[in-house]
């Protein structure tokens, strides 16, 4: 994770860099800092904690100059301390900011210490600053210094460096971690993503892996990993220049929960053609090539994948496997013939998912990406994109991106079923008409804040909580548990209801909260007996389902009633109450809802 920024131009850079860091805050919030150069002197300001801490500090002791770098940290190597905050300086000559991990830092550090370098931090990143100092002392010009540093380091990185011996030149490089360069008159800006520069420019170049560049206000020389000049296309990005506000809500998460009816209807539109027919945005030849699918994702996106698997197999008969991206990346999957890899990522930058997609490509698979951020690395590298139209999601806990991913997956399942004849025309039309009613049903779930509030009040004292579901509601139970643990720090696990008796039932004790999805139909009786067993052992049963379904569980301690919908769409409508439950429980506990401890929105380290 971590976000980096660098600016060189004809305007004082402090406020520009702070503006970019605000837009990068989703990448980490352990510490932040800025280093600038003026009159051949490096100036530094760093603070532990959120960016607001840096703003307070910098007000008292501003930094000046027309070139500088900035950083927002999500700690990997070294604790959350001022010494470990970036930028890192070496000998007051060079300052660097880094996102990623320098894997061979220990041996480099040992070598540099033997040569007399003094290290201040416990980070892997500081070796970069010392390596640059070494290169400049050997008489290197910036491009040679970059080549020297890159010849020494291994790992994943995007970095920017400034040196007081070259006070108008930014030195940048990337491998695996994202880095964009933006251009405007008499200035250049580099950053971890294009949004961070949207207040200055929309003209952006994305560096490719192993690229490095020497950037001034008037020039930008990019080289590839073979040290050859590289021409990288300048694209016009759509990132909004306006920082998003909370629109009167207390938290971004609360706002994003309320944005779901829109996110869902925009995504349904993106999956339909101008005539209102569902196409998933894929042409017929590409659709008919899909014979097997592997879904790759992490975290919440992985639970969307698991629900998608139920849908695709049910509606199209196409075999699907789901793989956790970080595992797939290092696996040798046996059967790959005629398999399409579909990666799912809100940010489009999760390194595990990106690496899994590249692994699939290397194995010869076609790659589709279900992504929310249109300019992200996954969006650029996938063969085909199925966009979610959730809009920017700022809260670390994914809400509207998750339900938008579900919409893309159900649309894909219907379209595949139509294409291979598994579904007849009338069933397709029926499902599509019912799908169009989902934004309305999700809109009604916004009324659930009040009835869920007392349940959250009760839950806040729990040490642990179980979430249960069957069939396509089982992955949703896992998603409910993930939401609760990341927001309220209460231990929570999701299980398939039928699995309880095979072990987890041993956890049951008086008052243990059990949140269970219940459905109507043939599975209802099974769920009732599973819940009866739990209640008999003291479980505090909270059920979520339609009125008909929850009425079957007369022994429940609490009931959350969701609007009626076609049962196959229940995972979309059922997602909202567990988001609300996690949100309100966190509110009761007073945790940091939009930026929970230890987490970051975009996970760009392995
Ligand atoms: C969601 O609430 C989480 N914060 C996290 O699990 C997230 O879904 C995961 O890191 C994957 O992110 P992505 O969708 O951006 O790839």
Furnish the topology, listing elements before pairings:
Elements: E1 3-9, H1 13-24, E2 31-38, E3 41-48, H2 51-60, E4 67-73, E5 88-90, E6 94-102, H3 105-114, H4 126-137, H5 142-152, E7 155-163, E8 166-175, E9 180-184, E10 187-191, E11 203-206, E12 212-215, E13 220-223, E14 235-236, H6 252-258, H7 260-270, H8 284-288, E15 292-297, H9 299-316, E16 320-324, H10 325-328, E17 339-345, H11 351-362, E18 366-371, H12 377-381, E19 384-387, H13 400-419, H14 425-435, H15 438-445, H16 449-459, E20 464-469, H17 474-488, E21 491-496, E22 513-517, H18 524-536, E23 540-545, H19 547-551, E24 558-561, H20 570-589
Parallel strand pairs: 15-16, 15-17, 17-18, 18-19, 20-21, 20-22, 22-23, 23-24
Antiparallel strand pairs: 1-4, 1-10, 2-3, 2-4, 5-6, 6-7, 7-8, 8-12, 9-10, 9-11, 11-14, 12-13
Bound molecules: 2-deoxy-2-amino glucitol-6-phosphate.
Could you walk me through the main structural features you see in this protein, from its secondary elements to its overall organization?
The model has no long low-confidence stretch (mean pLDDT 93). This protein is globular. 54% of the residues are buried. It has three domains: 3-248, Glutamine Phosphoribosylpyrophosphate, subunit 1, domain 1, CATH 3.60.20.10; 274-436, Rossmann fold; 445-606, Glucose-6-phosphate isomerase like protein, domain 1 (Rossmann fold), CATH 3.40.50. With 606 residues, the chain is α/β, with parallel strands linked by helices. The protein has an eight-stranded antiparallel beta sheet, covered by helices on one side. A six-stranded antiparallel beta sheet has the order 5-6-7-8-12-13. A five-stranded parallel beta sheet has the order 16-15-17-18-19, sandwiched between helices. A hairpin with a 2-residue loop joins strand 2 (31-38) and strand 3 (41-48). Helix content is 36%, strand content 23%. The protein binds 2-deoxy-2-amino glucitol-6-phosphate (AGP).
